[in-house]
Amino acid sequence: MFEIFEKYIRQTNVIPVADLAIVRESCTEKKVRKGQSLLHEGEIWALNCFITSGCFRLYRTDKAGIEHTARFAIENWWITDMESYIFQKPSEYNIEALSSGTIIVWPKNAWDEILKLSPAMKLFNDQLLERAYIASQRRIFSLISNSAAERYFEFQKTYPNVFNKVPLHMVASYLGISRETLSRIRREYANI
């Protein structure tokens, strides 16, 4: 499975072979079952997880017991609770496997050591964080300025591989709309 990660990383960065060997030595492969939780609210997240197969979501539950999906992640994506990971504080989120899959895992201390030893991996990590920040900005802007229908079509267009892998109530949660609103939008635009 490391070959999948190696192919992914080589698409965007030039990482010396010796650096990749350090990255490989520091990771473990983990099989995950559908419905399995990787993180529960209140736990401290100390892993860097690259998805080689499967579909996952990061979500939290509000005081009324309603789940709010913050993010989905599929093959060749990363899944993490960034705030808990960086500050080593209890998480406000849960991470759940929506399908069986495989992840490559680096403990935080091992990943931090990789970044100290490898300037190429440090650059890769910085670029990864930059892309995540930009995606967060776009998501916030979409939530505050786009209509429910616009958010739905934007999600379909931006994440076509995710759309068909997750239940509609989770898509609605991610879009910040009710399942009924999502069903109405789908009906209204079904023949367009």
Automatic annotation (TrEMBL):
It comes from the Bacteria. Transmembrane segments: none annotated. Residues 30-116 form the Cyclic nucleotide-binding domain. InterPro entries: cNMP-bd_dom, cNMP-bd_dom_sf, RmlC-like_jellyroll. This is Crp/Fnr family transcriptional regulator. It comes from Chitinophaga silvisoli.
